[in-house]
């Protein structure tokens, strides 16, 4: 329970006691004094933000009517879904705020078991900032949209795969394999977004994701550092052949190192990059540049 909700509950209980103590001036005065203190605490309590939330409704062989769902299947399916959301959150957190995601920011908790087909509700617990809430919500939406695209067609998947970090793909593959192997289906709901993946489509999606080619290499490039910012976590680099390279700083690059790099802006240098190339089936190769350092 959040701090504000706890205080509001205490005030409601005091209001009930005040009604009962209307005939006792001393008790009534004490209760009113306590209520004023709680009202002040409520004003000073930190702002609350809507928690990100997603529900996964499963159908098929792992589900036993309204009785329950196979526990082993649940672990196989929920673990990679949560891993996708947290991985995408971490990548987006760096872009939006320039800082590494804390464990608490991206944590999702099982907060309900909706019935119908058997559902599992995942909720971000009491986000501390508006950005944290928004990033988690958008990360869940992108993950669900990617699942929908993978189940739809090569073209749809090609259009969506570039919107997420490549680190999501291994978890997506595990998630789809769990659904396909157990002859299950899933309906995913997050806000206004609702996606249904039948079992046969889950198998097609798994095959499609399995065909993704991924390659990573580390290279050095002569050119000019055009600047980077801690807040955005992004950089620009101009090669000696006038090719513009943009991307994100590596996970191990500290704020102090980024500040030092700023002193090299527009100066000739050698950039050390990690390039991750993703080639979806039927699509064009997509390159992601990560700056590891300058020399």
List the helices and strands and how they pair.
Elements: H1 3-20, H2 25-44, E1 53-60, E2 63-64, E3 68-69, H3 71-97, H4 103-106, E4 109-112, E5 118-123, H5 130-152, H6 154-161, H7 168-181, E6 184-190, E7 193-197, H8 199-210, E8 213-229, E9 234-239, E10 244-249, H9 255-262, E11 268-279, E12 286-294
Parallel strand pairs: 10-12
Antiparallel strand pairs: 1-5, 1-6, 2-3, 4-5, 6-7, 8-9, 8-11, 9-10, 11-12
List key phrases describing it:
single chain, 295 residues, alpha+beta, OB fold (Dihydrolipoamide Acetyltransferase, E2P), 5-stranded antiparallel sheet, 5-stranded mixed barrel, 45% helix
Task: Describe the protein in words.
With 295 residues, the protein is of the alpha+beta class. The protein has 3 domains: 3-44, no CATH class; 53-211, no CATH class; 214-294, OB fold (Dihydrolipoamide Acetyltransferase, E2P) (Beta Barrel). The protein has helices at residues 3-20, 25-44, 71-97, 103-106, 130-152, 154-161, 168-181, 199-210, 255-262; strands at residues 53-60, 63-64, 68-69, 109-112, 118-123, 184-190, 193-197, 213-229, 234-239, 244-249, 268-279, 286-294. It has a 5-stranded antiparallel β-sheet. Strands 8-9-10-12-11 form a 5-stranded mixed beta barrel. Helix 1 runs antiparallel to helix 2 (25-44), helix 5 (130-152) packs across helix 8 and helix 7 (168-181) packs antiparallel against helix 8 (199-210). The longest helix has 27 residues, at 71-97.
């Amino acid at each position: 329970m959040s701090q504000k909700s706890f205080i509001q509950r205490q005030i409601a209980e005091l209001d009930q006691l005040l009604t009962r103590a209307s005939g006792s001036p001393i008790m009534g005065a004490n209760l009113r004094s306590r209520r004023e203190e709680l009202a002040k605490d409520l004003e000073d309590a930190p702002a609350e933000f809507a928690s990100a939330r997603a529900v996964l409704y499963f159908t098929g062989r792992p589900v036993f009517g309204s009785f329950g769902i196979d526990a082993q299947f649940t672990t196989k399916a929920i673990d990679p879904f949560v891993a996708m959301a947290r991985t995408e959150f971490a990548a987006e957190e760096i872009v939006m705020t320039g800082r590494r995601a804390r464990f608490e920011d991206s944590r999702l908790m099982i907060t309900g078991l909706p019935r119908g087909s058997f559902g599992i509700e995942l909720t971000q617990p009491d986000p501390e900032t508006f950005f944290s809430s928004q990033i988690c919500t958008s990360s869940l939406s992108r993950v669900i949209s990617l699942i929908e695209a993978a189940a739809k067609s090569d073209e749809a998947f090609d259009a969506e795969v570039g919107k997420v970090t490549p680190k999501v793909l291994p978890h997506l593959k595990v998630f789809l394999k769990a659904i396909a192997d157990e002859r299950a289906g899933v309906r995913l709901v997050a806000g206004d977004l609702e996606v249904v993946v039948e079992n046969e489509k889950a198998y097609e999606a798994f095959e499609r994701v399995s065909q993704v080619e991924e390659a990573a290499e580390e290279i050095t490039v002569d050119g000019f550092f055009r600047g980077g910012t801690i807040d955005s976590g992004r950089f620009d680099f101009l090669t000696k052949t006038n090719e513009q390279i943009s991307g994100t700083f590596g996970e191990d690059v500290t704020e102090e190192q980024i500040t030092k790099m700023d002193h090299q802006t527009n100066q000739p240098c050698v950039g050390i990059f990690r390039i991750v190339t993703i080639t979806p089936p039927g699509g064009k190769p997509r390159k992601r540049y990560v700056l590891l350092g300058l020399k």
